[in-house]
Amino acid sequence: MEEPSLTADHTPAQAPLIFQWGIFPIVMGLSVLCSWWLMAGGMAPPLAILGPQFAAFAIVATFEHVYPYHVSWNKSRSDVSVDARHAVGIGILIVVITPPMIAIGVAMGGWLSDRFGVGLWPTEWPLLAQIALVLIVGELPGYWVHRWEHEKQALWRFHAVHHSAPRLYWLNAGRFHPIDSLLTFAPAYLLLVILGCGEVMLAYFGMIAAVHGIFQHANVQLRLGPLNWIFSMAELHRWHHSKTIVEANHNYGQTISIWDWVFGTRFLPSDRSPPEEIGIADLPAFPMTWWGQILSPFRWRQIKEASMTQSAVPESADPVSD
């Protein structure tokens, strides 16, 4: 079982077990319940999911300073403004991309429905069953995109922005290159809409992914136990940010871990804790400014050459392979 880190400056207060085990399921459960209540009251789904997300952000940001997992991760590395710009950019991207994805998906879904004579999405199922299904189905494209981003050099150069984070805390859940987010986000929504998934289910999918993402990167003492077989939570995701490639090339689930154990990429060793020092070991020259990271995929050769000069790492030690 993971223990919170001890540092020379400060020993973090040990969080009560009820907090460690309860913080995520309680916040996530209340987020879903609140969204349901607002939508049942007539609020438009895109608006109904905003309040629970902001509340989750505030809760995690607060408890990172009450029960931190690593004290050192609460110290700014001149990364807050960079992460904030990434988060805003991703929010704008989602707003812009969602309407065309829905329009295309509705057209394709209508064609399939006419062809087969039935609706493909089980709208008669209970709400929680539909939420479970939307997570399982919607996560499948994202799992493979994420995995290929670690395995293919052409894709890794976009995903490297996310792994450049020098620490894990709530705000770097949005540290993604826009093209990386587009590659992950668009296929998931397109598939769901083609299958006949309506606006309400898409709202739950987006809200749960957002709240989970904040907890996934949270610098908070939390435990999930058996729920780690369902959610790709912090205990799994901390290994995904390891500088050791064998450890990092696992746990690709954005929200759920089901596809990781189905395809054999789940990684949660019980004999040691995940590393406190994270990042990209072979790219010490990776830019740490927002504009530098936006342009990094198009300056990849220069970044690699500068990194090799800086660390004397041979070219064969590249973090991904074709």
Keywords:
322 residues; mainly alpha; globular
Brief digest:
The chain has 322 residues and is mainly α. It has helices at residues 17-40, 45-48, 50-63, 80-116, 127-151, 153-163, 178-194, 199-216, 234-240, 245-248, 258-262, 290-295, 300-311.
Structure description:
By secondary structure, this protein is mainly α. It has 13 helices and no strands. The chain has helices at residues 17-40, 45-48, 50-63, 80-116, 127-151, 153-163, 178-194, 199-216, 234-240, 245-248, 258-262, 290-295, 300-311. Helix 1 (17-40) runs antiparallel to helix 8 and helix 5 (127-151) runs antiparallel to helix 7. It is globular. The relative contact order is 0.15.
Bin the strand percentage.
under 5%
> How many DSSP helices?
13
Content-based structural category: mainly alpha
Radius of gyration: 20 Å
How is this fold's topology laid out?
Elements lengths: L16 H24 L4 H4 L1 H14 L16 H37 L10 H25 L1 H11 L14 H17 L4 H18 L17 H7 L4 H4 L9 H5 L27 H6 L4 H12 L11
Helix pairs in contact: 1-3, 1-8, 3-8, 4-7, 5-6, 5-7, 5-8
